[in-house]
Design a protein that fits this description.
It contains 2 helices and 9 strands. The strands form 2 sheets. Strands 1, 2, 3, 4 and 9 form a 5-stranded antiparallel beta sheet that branches. A 4-stranded antiparallel beta sheet has the order 5-8-7-6, with no helix packed on it. The two termini are 16 Å apart. The relative contact order is 0.30. The chain binds zinc ion.
Length: 149
């Protein structure tokens, strides 16, 4: 039987900077084996029981993957519609296919815009402080849908 795990977490980078946390959103839930969370984290949480707390370190390769420098590119500002306001941090998909990478603007000069197609956490080793709040059997509906409810 597949299980559904709920857990609270605090995510930090190797320098100890806070990246993300479940605080204020409530615990995150996932269905075992459904790729709802990164593989390196799921593998470790599956070994835990309700009420267990653990620090789980996940290498970039088992998190959001390595950075690909070829996904960083500089384009002419004239490639964008003239009326489009561009800001560092803006994100957009370059085309309409569902798996097209999401690019972020990382730099803007008078004539050029630098785009980065890497996930913002690519290449970063992640450190999670996890507390499992619930472990239960998945319902048939959850298994049919492939995600936790
Ligand atoms: Zn569903």
């Amino acid at each position: 039987m597949k299980k559904v795990f709920s857990f609270e977490y605090t995510l930090k980078d190797p320098q100890g900077n806070l990246i993300d946390s479940s605080e204020g959103h409530g615990p995150l839930k996932f269905l075992e084996g459904s790729s709802q969370i990164i593989p390196g984290l799921e593998k470790e949480i599956l070994l835990l029981n309700e009420e267990d707390s653990k620090r789980i370190n996940v290498k970039a390769e088992e998190a959001y993957g390595p950075r690909h420098e070829d996904l960083v590119m500089e384009v002419e500002k004239t490639q964008f519609p003239e009326d489009q306001v561009l800001n560092v941090g803006d994100q957009f998909q370059v085309n309409d296919t569902p798996d097209a990478p999401i690019f972020s603007i990382i730099a803007i000069t008078d004539t050029k815009v630098t785009l980065d197609g890497n996930h913002p956490l690519a290449g970063i080793d992640l450190s999670f402080d996890v507390k499992v709040t619930e472990v239960r059997q998945a319902t048939e509906e959850e298994i049919a849908h492939g995600h936790a409810h």
